């Protein structure tokens, strides 16, 4: 930007020497613009605070997660144009920005773009809503911050990591069926237990209709005066079936 300063100083000097007020004003304004642009280039990006905050880092498919983006100009110099390109993983759905552009540098990343005009020590907060529509781990960052001058030219640029991850877990659904009798899991009690091992005797219980006579414990029945049946441990342990959809693509 030294060219703007030199040009402005030259115009101002010529205007002062030749007594041309218009040229003097133009030269002064040009030199001031060059000086201001140099200040923006040297310290503007370093005194900007950018933050991204997720309402929750873990969600379930179907949840709504708040997203808050904040930027703070911590200097006395106003900034006419500040932009931030925040990279998010492909698959994130933001209600306020349904169509996010693909990033040209990072593979499978989208860009959440924001732009501001900030006065001195101004802090701006923007709030978005994320629809957790697909399970997976969605990383955020890095963030590319750019500061432009009054003519729209980039005078400062900085990349910040700003890591973050949103983990979306699948929904937990109950086992339902229109035919409870055929349901493998349900509220109906089984009519018979698991296969028993006759070698694993575990005690006696009151006789129940349907018990075979060979399971009646006659000695215990004679002692107690109540008909009781032998009880055995199951021949094998109970099994639990866990079904999980591990498909990651449509």
How would you summarize the topology of this molecule?
Layout (H helix, E strand, L loop, with lengths): L1 H17 L2 H23 L4 E7 L3 E3 L3 E10 L5 E11 L3 E2 L6 E2 L6 E10 L4 E9 L4 E13 L5 E7 L3 E6 L26 E11 L11 H7 L3 E7 L16
Parallel strand pairs: 2-11
Antiparallel strand pairs: 1-3, 3-8, 4-7, 4-9, 5-8, 6-7, 9-10, 9-11, 12-13
Structural account:
The chain has 250 residues and is an alpha+beta fold. The chain is built from three helices and 13 strands, in the order H-H-E-E-E-E-E-E-E-E-E-E-E-E-H-E. The chain has helices at 2-18, 21-43, 218-224; strands spanning 48-54, 58-60, 64-73, 79-89, 93-94, 101-102, 109-118, 123-131, 136-148, 154-160, 164-169, 196-206, 228-234. Strands 2, 4, 6, 7, 9, 10 and 11 form a seven-stranded mixed beta sheet that branches. A four-stranded antiparallel beta sheet has the order 1-3-8-5, with no helix packed on it. The radius of gyration is 37 Å and the shape is rod-shaped. 14% of the residues are buried. The mean pLDDT is 79.
